[in-house]
Amino acid sequence: MESKYYTFEQLRNIMAKLRAPDGCPWDREQTHQSIKECLIEEAYEFLEAIEADDPHHMREELGDLLLQVVFHAQMGAEAGTFDLDQVIHELADKLVRRHPHVFGTTEVAGSDEVVVNWEAIKNSEAGKEDRKSRMDGIPTTFPALVRAKKLQVRAAKDGFDWPSAEPVWEKLAEETREVHEAIAQGDPDHLEDELGDLLFVAVNLARKLKVDPEIALQRANRKFEARYRAMEDLVEARGQKMSDLDLVSQDKLWDEVKRIARAG
User: Fold this and answer.
1) Rounded to an integer, what distance in angstroms lies between the CA atom of residue 16 and that of residue 66?
2) Model pLDDT, residue 261
3) Closest to 157 in 3D by CA, of 118, 106, 125, 127
4) Distance, CA of 80 to CA of 75 (rounded, Å)
5) How many CB atoms lie within 10 A of CB 203?
6) How much is the pTM?
7) Which stretches of the chain drop beneath a pLDDT of 70?
8) Burial of 212 (C-beta count, 10 Å sphere; 0-12/13-18/19+)
9) Predicted local confidence at residue 115, as pLDDT
10) Tell me: the pLDDT tens digits for 173-186?
11) In this structure, are residues 42 and 68 in contact, taking their beta carbons and an 8 Å threshold?
12) What are the angstrom distances between the C-alpha of 14 and each of 10, 63, 71, 75, 78?
C-alpha cells in the first residue's frame, strides 16, 4: 500500500528540482549567505511553538527547520563541498561516538556523568586540538544573552564562578550604582560599557537561579506586547488613542490590564 506521506528521499528530490535549471528562479538564486538569517528565524519560530505548547505548530516549524538543512545540503552537493548523506553520516557518527554508555561499554551513574563524558569526548575530537582557551569555539554570532551565558558556563568549569546567587545580587547592586555614576559623567561610551556589565551580571543571576536568560527575556517581551495590545484595545473601546493619554493615565491603564489578566 502506498504511503500517504512523502518520504525523505522524495523531499531531497523536490529540493534538487527546485534548484535545477528548470526549477524555481528564486530558489536557484539563493546561497548559503543569502538564506542564513532564515535558519535563525525558523529556529525562533519553533521555540515560539514550544512556548505555546502547540503540537501542530511545532510540527510545521520543524518542517521549516528541516527545509533549511535540506536547502543548504543541496547547495553543498552542487558545489561539491558536502551533501546530505555526509551530513547525516557525521551526525549519526557523532551521536554514537558521544554516547559510549549506550553504544559501547562505558557505564555512567546518571545524567551529570553523561555531560562530563560528552564534553571530554567532544574536546578530544579532530579539529579541536588547536583550542587553547576555554573560551574558544563559542560562536560570536550567538545572540548576546546566549553568548554571555555560554561564556559564563565555560568559565565556571574552571571554578571561576560565584558559589550561589546571593553574591550575584551584591554585584548587581554594584553594577547598578556604576550605571548611575556613568549617567552623571555624561560619557556615552562609559554608559554603554556599564550597562553591558549590568546585563552581563543579570545573565549570571539568571544562570545561578537556573533560568535561561534568553527564554526569560522572550517571555517578558511576549507579556509586554500582549499587555500593550490589551491597553490599545481598551483605549480604542473608550474612543481614545494611547498617544492622547499622559503617562499617569497610561500607568493606570497598565495596572488595569494587569488586573484583568490575573483575573482571567
Assistant:
1) 15
2) 84
3) 118
4) 9
5) 25
6) 0.70
7) 1-3, 127-130, 264
8) middle
9) 86
10) 999 999 999 999 99
11) yes
12) 6, 14, 10, 13, 15
Q: How far is C-alpha 193 from the geometric centre of its chain's CA atoms? A: 24
Which three three-digit cell numbers place residue 255?
A: 495596572
Burial 38-50 (b: 16+ CB within 10 A, else e): bbeebeeebeebe
Q: Single out the residue of 63, 29, 30 nearest to residue 46, CA to CA.
A: 63
Q: In terms of Cα–Cα distance, which of 218, 226, 227, 229 is closest to 50?
A: 218
The predicted pLDDT at position 125 comes to 79
| CATH class of the domain at 131-211 | mainly alpha
Closest C-alpha among 99, 69, 100 to residue 86? 69
Residue showing cell 500500500: 1
Same fold, 8-97 and 131-211: yes
pLDDT in tens, 7-22: 999 999 999 999 999 9
Residues in CB range of 190: below 8 A, 6 or more apart: 182
Domain ranges of the chain: 8-97, 131-211, 215-263
Cα–Cα distance for residue pair 86/73, rounded to 1 Å = 9
Of the CATH numbers 1.10.287.1080, 1.10.10.10, 3.20.20.150, 3.30.450.40, which one belongs to the domain with range 8-97?
1.10.287.1080
Please tell me whether residue 248 adopts helix, strand or coil conformation.
helix
